[in-house]
Amino acid sequence: MEYTEAELAAIREAAAADGKTVKAYVHDLSVREQQRRTFVNHAVAFWNAHLEEFDAAFPEDAPGANRSAA
pLDDT over 90 for what percent of the chain? Predict the structure, then answer.
């Protein structure tokens, strides 16, 4: 991977703040990002699967509930 000197300096600083080597810091960061993406994908799937249930339970918060008729 290639970084500018400024980017590499910021990465080194962040790694040091975490008490890690740059290699370990970049590794952990990439793993955390993949875990975040997996979590978000599952959260969106859960939301989509239960959207009608939420709308029925909270009709005042359903999209369009507060729109006045034109």
Answer: 81
- Asked if residue 43 is part of any domain, the answer here is yes
**What gap in Å lies between CA 70 and CA 51, rounded to an integer?**
26
Residue ranges of the alpha helices (H) in 1-70?
Answer: 5-17, 22-57
- Residues 40-65: tens digit of each pLDDT: 999 999 999 999 999 999 988 888 76
Give Cβ neighbours of residue 69 (< 8 Å, ≥ 6 apart): none
| Residue 24 domain boundaries | 5-57
Please check whether residue 68 lies inside any domain of the structure: no
Query: 25, 14 in Cβ contact below 8 A?
Result: yes
